Each structure stands twice: as structure tokens, then as C-alpha cells.
Amino acid sequence: MLIISLTIITSLFYVLATSHVLSRLFHKQGPNQKVTVILSTVAILAHMLLLVNSVFRSEGQDLSIVNVALLTCWVIVVSVTAVSLKFPATLLLPVVYGFAALLSVASLFIPHHILLQSIDVELGLVAHISLSLLAYCILIIATLYGVQFYFIDKRLKRKDLAIVHSHLPPLMVVERQLYQLLNLGTALLTIALVCGFVFLDGMFAKEFIHKTILSLVAWAIFVVVALGHIKQGWRGKPVVITIMVAAFVLTLAYFGSRFVQEVVLNKF
Fold it and tell me: Which residue spans traverse the membrane (predicted)?
């Protein structure tokens, strides 16, 4: 009952925050920051309590894909909200808040069970998991910046005066932040993969080989794009689409097989 109540509170305040930002999306002054912060803070705190009560059970730790997704989503929401306090992120906020609301509600209906796990505190494993999660979150945020860049660029090319006088950030600022996040996320993903190969056995074992290969494919794409921008000045729509493809491949690597095993196959 507690988890249901926390889920309702979390999703409700995420929806309220989303609605507030969307209602003033193209307003010159943008959404009221104080209202946005209050609504999002309540949602974030409720989300955190939901995570604590969902993961830590009397039977053990529930590290199912649903809870891992909720944790990843929480990190992204906190990061984007923090960034928005200093830099305009009007387009990103409704996306992350809206997705967080949907995921919170979906967690009540997606079948998942308690996974009794003994937590391995080996330094190599902890480093690999922590860096992988952080890299994924940063690269997803970079992808969102790419979507924001594409949206603003498209509206500017159409000579849309509404976007010129809106609270949305300048195109060049969005592009600069996009590549800063891309470089940081790619570097962290590189270190995470190195830690995995150095400290973990079985990266190419049958049950993990698909995750390893997909992660390497995504990493290669991110590296090529990052180097292409630095060395050749790559930019624009093709780069944004490539980053989105890489983010999708990395998402498949992190969540694809677990979703099939824990959700799809669990129904049959």
C-alpha cells in the first residue's frame, strides 16, 4: 500500500511539473522557476522514497529491471533539474518529467519479482556498475540535448518568431552543451568498459555476450561522433540522429535482455 501511495504522489507531481512547464513553453519569461522547483522537488523526493521501499525489502534486495529503470530515471531527472537551475532546459524538463511519471505508473503494472541478491562489494564490480550507470545517464541527457537542438534548429529554419522570443536557450549554447555531455559520457563509458574487461570474468560468456557486444557497438558510435566533431567539425541533424541510434543500442544493451527475461517471458 505504501508503494502504491508513493507511486501516485510521484506521478502526480511529475505530471503537475510537466503541465506547468508545457503551459509556458514558448512564453518569453518561460515557466516560473520557483513553481517548477517546488513541484519537481516533491516528485523527486517521493521518487526516492519509492525507490528505497521498492529495492530494500525484508526478503532481500529487489534489483529487477523495473527498479533499475526507476533508479536510472531518478538520476536523469535530478541531473536535468539541477542543470535547469543554471541553464535554460525548458524543452528537456517536460520530457524527463513526463517519462518519469509514465514509468512510475507503469511500474505498478509491469510484472517483476523479488530477486534475492547477495551484494558483491568487490571494488572492480562496484566501479564498473557505477561508471556504467553514470555514463548511461549522461549519454541519455546528451541525446535529449540533441533532440532539443534539432527542434530549435528546425523551428529557426522555418523562421518561427515564437521560438525567437521564447525562453528556449540559444542554439549554439545547446550545441556546446550537447558535445560537452557527449565527450564526458563517452569517456566514462570507456572507463566503465575497461573496468569490466580488467576486473570481471565472463564479459563474453554466453549470458552476457549480447550486452557486451551491444555496449561496444554503442561505444564505437559515440567515439566516432565525438572524434568526428573534434577533428572534422561534424554537426547538425546527421550527428543528432547518430547519437540517438547509439543511445538506443546502449539502452538495448543495458535493458533489452532483462526486459525480455523478466517481463515478456514472465507472462508466459
Answer: 33-52, 64-85, 91-111, 123-151, 178-200, 212-230, 236-255
How far apart are alpha carbons 84 and 246 in whole angstroms? Answer: 25
Separation CA 68–CA 98 (nearest Å):
18
Q: How is residue 119 written as a grid cell? A: 551484494
Structural contact between residues 201 and 261, judged by C-beta atoms closer than 8 angstroms: no
For 146-190, the pLDDT digits (tens) are 999 988 888 888 877 666 666 677 888 889 999 999 999 999 999
pLDDT in tens, 216-245: 999 999 999 999 999 998 888 899 999 999
Q: Return d(Cα 263, Cα 69) in angstroms, integer.
A: 13
Q: How far apart are the first and last CA of the chain?
A: 27
**Which residues, in sequence order, are bridge partners of residue 61?**
56
pLDDT at 113: 60
